[in-house]
Design a protein that fits this description.
single chain; alpha/beta; seven-stranded mixed β-sheet; 7 helices; 17% strand; globular
């Protein structure tokens, strides 16, 4: 199996849009899907079961009930349920582009254990970053991340792809941070202090 995909979700009504975009994004890669949510209605359970049956590359599928924050849901999924050597997580309100996840897996497969991928995404609306997309992921371009001990060139990965073994070795994310971005930023800074690199 090439990739584990974790989806913390509370918006089941829009989940099919994301999941239907994954097979074309992975191409010939094999994958497992772990959806973590406070509860699952019969309707979404039936839809997910039917979706799994239609996907030749989907090797394993799990529903995990958890009433914690998205950060806790991600941490628990990677600690207890991820089986692939590489994992990523996706937001339930997005989609992935054709071929994109497959390219990310190929790039990380040729990188060091302590490297990671910035799985780029865009958002629209008030407060949208207006600079070049690559600049968005550099910590110094966000006021909250201009802190002592964070070098100007360090990157963040609000959505990332990492080696499962390395994530577990580093203890994953610090769930004391309430917002999942802060958890991930902290993990990315620890990775880079450890000599790892985040690739676009």
């Amino acid at each position: 199996m090439d990739l584990s995909i974790v989806v913390p979700s509370i918006r089941h009504e829009i989940l099919p849009r994301l999941l239907e975009s994954i097979p074309a994004s992975l191409g010939d890669k094999t994958w497992e899907l772990i959806v973590v949510s406070p509860e699952f209605s019969d309707d979404i359970h039936e839809w997910l079961t039917a979706f799994q049956a239609e996907q030749s590359g989907l090797v394993r599928f799990q529903l995990v009930e958890d009433r914690g924050s998205p950060a806790r849901c991600l941490q628990r999924a990677v600690a207890e349920h991820v089986h692939a050597p590489i994992f990523t997580w996706l937001t339930d309100d997005g989609i992935v582009r054709e071929g994109a996840l497959g390219r990310c897996v190929d790039l990380l497969s040729g990188a060091k254990l302590n490297d990671g991928i910035v799985v780029k995404y865009t958002e629209e609306g008030p407060g949208t970053f207006t600079g070049a997309l690559d600049e968005y992921y550099v910590a110094k371009n966000h006021e909250a991340n201009r802190q002592p001990g964070i070098p100007d060139h360090f990157k963040t990965a609000p959505v990332g792809m990492f080696w499962t073994k390395y994530w577990r070795l580093m203890g994953g994310i610090d769930c004391r941070f309430d917002h999942i971005n802060m958890n991930i930023h902290d993990f990315c800074y620890r990775l880079q202090h450890d000599g790892g690199e985040l690739h676009y």
